[in-house]
Amino acid sequence: MSARTPIIEATNLDKFYGPFHALKNIDITVHQGEKMVICGPSGSGKSTLIRCFNGLEWHNSGKLVVDGVEVYQGSKDILKLRQEVGMVFQQFNLFPHLTVLENLTIGPMKVRKIGQAEAVKTARQYLDRVHIPEQADKYPAQLSGGQQQRVAIARSLCMESRIMLFDEPTSALDPEMINEVLDVMVELVDTGMTMVVVTHEMGFARKVADTMVFMEEGHIIEVSPPEQFFTNPSSERCRLFLDQILAH
Amino acid sequence: MIRPDTSTLMGDPLPKPPAIQRFFDSTVVSVIIYAIVVALICYGSFVGAQNMGYNWQWHRVPQFLYSFTDDGFQLGEIFYGLYTTLTLSINAFLLAVALGLLIALLRLSDLVVGSAVAIGFLEFVRNIPLLVLLYLFYYVLGPIFKFDRYTASILTLAVFHSALISEIFRAGINAVAKGQWEAAKSIGMSTGQSYRYIIFPQSIRFMLPPMTGEVVHMIKSSAIVSVIAVAELTTIGRNIISDTFMSFEIWFTVALVYLVVTLALSIGVSHLEKKYTVDQ
User: Fold this and answer.
1) Nearest 5 degrees, angle CA A205-CA A208-CA A209?
2) CA distance A72 to A10
3) Interval A169-184: pLDDT, tens
4) Which end of chain A is more exposed for a tag (fewer CB within 10 A), N or C?
5) What pLDDT, on a 0 to 100 scale, did the predictor assign at position B14?
6) Do A216 and A44 meet the contact criterion of CB atoms below 8 Å apart?
7) Residue B45: enclosing H or E segment and its boundaries?
8) DSSP β-ladder status, A85-88 and A163-167
9) What angle separates helix B247-279 from helix B200-221, to the nearest 10 degrees?
């Protein structure tokens, strides 16, 4: 990890869905260039947490500062912030009416107001980076799940964001396609980008994570470096969870 | 390489449906039944008219469709009526789409006032008869705001159909997956940009079929403005009848003209739909 400058800072974050208390008093700091992997059983609030980071969900109380911008419902700066925070979804969410290339260029052209020629050039570069330059003119529905997810990653990269959020990027994929997506993500690690990844892929986590976070029932139970997290977690619940998913 | 034989059936054939069902399911029998029913209806109306002592004068109808004068080929009165019906419908439809879109966006917006206004408008328009709405526009609002009967007709049709069209917009917009909104937001698009580049282009294919239905419905309901004597197809038909007393022939002709126009429209749009689905 390079400089220890905080880029995402959450203090006493709480989030409710009606009576359901989804995030409970969350305190967490992500530093610039840090790779953080968040895991935990389903319904533990991990997706909700990272969706708060770019304002797709709004926290109800507490303070959240991302890339120097305070995030809260009604903030005027949220559109600007979202340009700096890319997100990759479990269900890919590619735009089905646009070709792969158009999926990659629409953000830079319409949001960042970059010229078409330059946007296309950047898009082709990132398609190379995710190893599918030959699919540029196809529609998303013509691609496999793994290819679609790699296009989705390239779409976020095209916005030249400083932070990337991954919301269970491999959970909707067939097993044989998971690795092609993880490989692309591992390659991103060397670019120095800040990455927050919600995933159950522990092999990937062990390889790339600077920090492991374990969540359960809206609480952050454990934050530790991977060596300690996988060998000697401080909480019993985290140990049980790891035993369960590493058992087979 | 040996190819597996997939052409011969391996299992026991399924039992055939009973003979009576096969008889009624066959194309020939269906067509015959259809022809008999249509013939009976035609014969019934003919005999009914005969019994009334109705004097059929089909030979006098063509002059209202077209004529040859010294100036050459001329379209007849019915086509002037049709022209008014179409311009009336097109104007009203364009206005209804604009108004409907506004109502739908208000309803879907986060503004509490916006959705309250939209729902209020919807309930008001949907729950009064079209004829009463027309009288309101012509006899009440017309004199107040000084507009003529043609404008009153356009406004009535536009307001009435905007309520239905706004529901089509709303359904079409809601039919686009929620993840599309999230993806659009995540690359920094504003609500307006998300609608324009991501949501609307995808909702068109959900909206096209019901929207066609709405245009057809609009053309048909435009007949109601004949009660305030706007010279459209139905009014023209009625005027011809009061001159000639050929009510059977003229109403059949008018109905046929409506049918041809709306059918042509439906067929045209179904081609358009095919184009949009291929692109997906």
Assistant:
1) 65
2) 12
3) 998 888 888 988 898 8
4) C
5) 84
6) yes
7) helix B27-52
8) parallel
9) 180
Nearest by Cα to A73 from A92, A87, A62, A57:
A57
Which chain A residue is nearest to residue B279, measuring alpha carbons?
A97
Mean pLDDT of chain B: 86
Give the C-alpha separation, B257 to B262, whole Å: 9
pLDDT range class, residue B193, cuts 50, 70, 90: very high
Among B229, B269, B236, B278, residue whose Cα is nearest residue B254? B236
A86 and chain B in contact, CB less than 8 A: yes
Answer yes or no: do A156 and B182 touch at CB < 8 A.
no
Q: Give the nearest partner residue to A111 out of B179, B182, B188, using CB atoms.
A: B188
| Distance of residue B189 Cα from the nearest chain A Cα, in angstroms | 6
Question: What's the pLDDT at A3?
Answer: 54
> What span, in angstroms and rounded, lies between the C-alpha atoms of A64 and A51?
12
Q: Are B190 and A82 in contact (CB < 8 Å)? A: no
- The Cα A55–Cα A198 span in angstroms is 17
Judge contact between A37 and A197, C-beta under 8 A.
yes
Q: Which of A48, A71, A95 to mutate to test the interface with B (most CBs of B within 10 A)?
A: A95
Domains annotated on chain B, with CATH: 75-275 (1.10.3720.10)
Dump pLDDT digits (tens) for A2-56: 457 889 999 998 999 988 988 888 999 999 989 999 998 888 889 999 999 989 9
**Minimal-distance CA residue of chain A relative to B276:** A97
B202 neighbourhood in chain A, CB within 8 Å? 95-97
A130 touches chain B (CB under 8 A): no
Chain A, 139 to 178: residues with Cβ < 8 Å from chain B are 139, 141, 155-156, 159
Tokens encoding A149: 């997810």
ipTM over 0.85? The verdict is yes
Query: Quick one: B222 exposed, middle or buried, by C-beta within 10 A (0-12, 13-18, 19+)?
Result: buried
- Which of A78, A89, A106, A110 would you mutate first to test chain B, the one with the most B CBs within 10 A? A110
Find, among A165, A166, A207, A172, the residue nearest to A186 by Cα.
A207
Give the pLDDT of residue A248. 63
Indicate whether B197 pLDDT > 90.
yes
With H, G, I as helix, E, B as strand and everything else as coil, classify residue A214. strand
- Decide if B186 and A86 are in contact by the 8 Å CB cutoff: yes
Cross-chain CB nearest to A107 (options B179, B188, B201): B188
Least confident of A33-47, B24-38, B53-67, B235-249: B53-67
Instruction: Show residues of chain A in contact with B201, CB under 8 Å.
Output: 97
The CB density around residue B13, as the number of other CB atoms within 10 Å, is 6
User: Angle B112-126/B77-108 helices, nearest 10 degrees?
Assistant: 150
